[in-house]
Amino acid sequence: MLDQETIRTFIHVAESHSFSKTAEALFKTPAAISYRIKMLEEDVGTQLFMRTTRIVQLTPAGDHLLERCRQWLAWLDAMPGELQQINHGVERQVNIVINNLLYSPQAVAKLLAHLHQKFPLTQFLISRQVYMGVWDSLLHDDFQLAIGVTGSEALANNVSMLELGGVSWLFVVAADHPLAECEGPVHEDKLRAWPAINIEDTSRNLTKRVAWLLPGQKEIIVPDLSSKLECHLQGLGVGFLPAELCQRYINSGQLVSCEVANQRQPSPLSLAWKNEAGKAVEEIVALFQQRDEAIGDFLQNIDLSA
């Protein structure tokens, strides 16, 4: 009923609105094209085209079939390559989770451009998570690779890791914030008077972590690092930001770095991946091992010596 020739004929008639144009394009007679469409309508038991002397238009059922036929044809055209890909150990889909601290649209686009060129038939899905949410996605969801898991030791036996370096932190406030005038280490009793700007851990199964919050201190929770940075710039609250991220705002005078009594230690981050992963994941691991340009933007906030 819906062999490839019928599907292609139906699509061509639907797009050209003409049996004669379709016949010319497919090197058939108009009568042959008309007969094939007539047999298709009889097979599916409903009218697919409204015919006039001037034009051929799809019925609502024809519109629906056109969408499906395009999907089927694309699937049929891609199938030989997909089968070859599977035999060569290349995944049909790779899900990648990225730590919010390392995420940027530019970094994601550059990596995906590289991967699409090398694995054109593989589908890639990107997720952005916070703190233990990165580990959670790798261990409990269908993700094969994580960029920026916390720590340097795997939380499961089936996971391999590559240390990337660490994120160094600076305690910063807006230039016009009262704490900006403080000299020497600022103690907790003064810090507690101002809200802590934090990003909530997105973990659902593992224990959530809080980046920095003093007992009794008000907390303002924002969804991502860009929002947290903007809250600091607006003088809304206080807290730690990645040193690499906020240094240019310190240089411009928009932010001031304060010395605090309990300085936050660098946070080690790693690349982590499932051991049974295929060729596409192996390619990503190799890019990070070689510090390739395709993944360079992910390392902008990383201190390689930390």
UniProtKB/TrEMBL annotation:
Name the SUPFAM superfamilies on file: Periplasmic binding protein-like II, Winged helix' DNA-binding domain
According to the UniProt entry, the coiled-coil residues are: none
Keywords, A to Z, come to:
DNA-binding, Transcription, Transcription regulation
Output the PROSITE patterns linked to this UniProt entry: HTH_LYSR
The molecular function terms of the Gene Ontology recorded here are: DNA binding; DNA-binding transcription factor activity
**Segments forming domain HTH lysR-type:** 2-59
Q: Which family does it belong to?
A: Belongs to the LysR transcriptional regulatory family.
* NCBIfam families according to UniProt: PRK10094.1
Its recorded name reads HTH-type transcriptional activator AllS
Task: Please spell out the taxonomic lineage of the organism that makes this protein.
Answer: Bacteria, Pseudomonadati, Pseudomonadota, Gammaproteobacteria, Enterobacterales
